[in-house]
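Write out a sequence, fold above all:
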Amino acid sequence: IAATQPSTDWHLKENAREHHTSKFSSEELIVRRGQAFTITFNGAERPEQNLIFIAETGPKPSKATKTLATFDISSTVSKEGWGAVVQSSSSSSVSISISSPHNAVIGRYRLSVQTGSSSPQSLGTFVLLFNPWSSGDDVFMPNAAECEEYVLEEFGIIFAGNKNHISSFGWNFGQFQGDILNICLAIMDRSLYYRQDPITDVSHRHDPRYLGRVLSAMVNANDDQGVVLGNWSGKYEGGKNPTSWTGSGEILQGWKKSGFKPVKYGQCWVFAAVLTTVLRCLGIPTRTITNFSSAHDADGNLRVDEFYDADGNHLEKGADSVWNFHVWNESWFTRNDLGPSYSGWQVLDATPQEESGGIYQCGPASRHAIKEGEVELDYDGPFVFAEVNADCMYWNYDSATGKKTLIFSKSTEIGASISTKAVGRDARVDVTRDYKYEEGSAKEREIFKKARKKLGLEDKFDPTAPKQEEVEQKPDISGKFKVAGSLEVGKDLNLLLVLENLQSDAKTVNVNMTAWSTLYTRRRVNQIWKDSLSVTLAPKEEKQFPIKIKYPEYQQQLTTDKTIQVTALCHVKDGIQVLVKRNITLDNPAIDIQVLGEAKVNKEVVVEVAFTNPINEEVKDCVLQVEGSDLLQGILELRIPPLKASEKSSTKFKLIPSEAGPKHLLVNFFCDKFADIKTFKVVNVIN
């Protein structure tokens, strides 16, 4: 009997239930480390005799690198290394409980068994993942509801828009669908770290800190032919517009299908969402975080400089920028390298903004270290600290003379309404206080100074600047843009410019106004409108000036980010200039989803999607895209006939849900006049 290949029963259902891996659809055993699993095999001759098991992973397994373990039967489960305990045996088969250490390397293992002096016989392969349910694991998360959300939940909400007007859209992470696990394992094997030294790379895969950093590099295409190619040009020929994706599955599968060529195109939320999928799939609790008015401090001085010309046009000068929003990740694990107070949520950012260690990767940076200004701690503290804390300096720049004059500076502009999805419900939670002390408080300024000091940027005055031209003067007037009416694509944009004289003598003001369509990074794309006005303000007087930008004026110029920057540069006679600006994000019209009847497992259910054309002209090239884990396979794409002005379209399609529970259906509608109108609906599937 011993000569025949042993046949193995992996007890897939029972093991998956015990290990929280039931959502994977795989014929292969998938288990979590630090926890026992049971297998039964036959063909072992008198099983009580010296069975020796061999578990190995990676290209050249060895005990020294902890990628090879040999272990025999013992009477109790080992706490330290790998172990095997007989559960039951008969003359022809034996059931064994196998346990792995809490810090085992994760990945695909080959398992074989040896009896006596015969050669080892293969039992097959299994995949070992991180275990947030186990107290010995670096990713241990004591709260079960958080494990459920941050590891097992396949649906997410990503926040966008701007700090005055937060919007959100759904995302299908889909970490348990189809071939995603195999693709995640392939990502690790294609990293620069693996290519340079596969043996060392695999031996480090027990460490979430290491893998988080490696995967933050691999999700972007820079350096390593990673998963997603970034594009912030506003032109997306040869690929998909970043705003059109609704889930990670299509991206990860596209990367594999193309022979691992980067998928076109991504922007920050795409990188963050794909990294969430990969890390949740591997068992590291992960979530997406949106930071509003997010600084990209390119020169590491914790300060962002913005330049404007005399007409109020925002100039592309200098490498610093402020984005309406930026999305990154937090993953949950211990920081044995830094100490217990730095454990918990760690910032990772897969968007390629600045190099770290020679390649585009970012993090993990301990969120606690960021809040306390401990910017010298690994990894990338100064960059992340600046994203939420940098001071803003606004300059007037004269290109003829090269002279720059400080208009004003602001220390409370950056890092607002830092947001993530709530645990167990579709709502926004504000985590700003976890990143910094209250804006404008003495403690917040103290931490800012501490961070500058650690970076060798000693303050001459706050915010920073030794040079005379950087000394701020007090303005004579103040101004702001107010929104009057709705902010919707297809409608005219109505604003009020409010100017107030702060002095007790009259002031004459010349105002140059511009409106540009921008990307969400505030990069200018097309000028929409310009105007100027002259006004005399009586002492302490406030005046309002209505501004109307008609839909036909901006329709052709608008980017798919639907963002417009309006600026007014006010030249006060015998006084200093005042810059008034506002970033506006327009909303798409609504789209409605109805589920007609009850949704049952493996039964057809009809869904109806309705859209009314809100504008006075025909819309054409209409497409509806639908996806949702456990509701349908892949992505359903439906073409819809053109819609005349005010016409309503109703589209029906069928779903066959594959699993019970609350499932999210994501819909994206686009046409020649409207880009990516997104919504989602919870479908309660019953057995």
Q: What stands out?
A: The radius of gyration is 29 Å.
